[in-house]
Amino acid sequence: MSGLFITFEGIDGSGKTTQLQKLSSWLAGASIPHLVTKEPGGTVIGREIRQILLSSSSSNIVPTAELLLYAADRAQHVQQVLLPELRAGKVVLSDRYTDATVAYQGYGRLLPLETIKELNSIATGGLVPNLTLLFDLEVEKAQLRLKRSREIDRLESEFYDFHERVRYGYLELARKDSRFVLIAANSSQEEIFEQVLSAVKPFLF
Q1: What DSSP character marks residue 110?
Q2: Contact, 22 vs 181, CB < 8 A?
């Protein structure tokens, strides 16, 4: 497979989506073929699953059902979008991937990490990112950003302790896996983007 797979991770409000869009613009300016996608919601089926997962009307969904819906979205996403685009040699930028499930459903919901690992393996067929950018920001600052920008969804409105566990989970993943690059997300967008470019350029040139 000749493409490059880069995932953007972090707690809600960390600024990862903004930085993904900035990198997409930079790649376009450099005439580098690429695709922007996301989880959940990177396919038609995925968008329907996303609506269920993030809607406030799904407040009574149980953690195991939530986990399985994310896995279903991912399986469709990998087969329909990620693998074909990577085989075509493109740079693929994904807003969340398997690490989000470990952080949110594993550390956040306290579901068994081994179960999540197995489900992720089934859903992805073993597809692992070349590079994962983890945007780290204190929960309090991230939540303030969210409240200022828009109406928050079901997961974003979870209790503070939930988001603290998610952040901790992400940092644990980064500590154990060298494909992660930790991005300090508490400075200006321009300064953060410089960190992004420093991490990405070695994979491109």
Answers
A1: -
A2: no
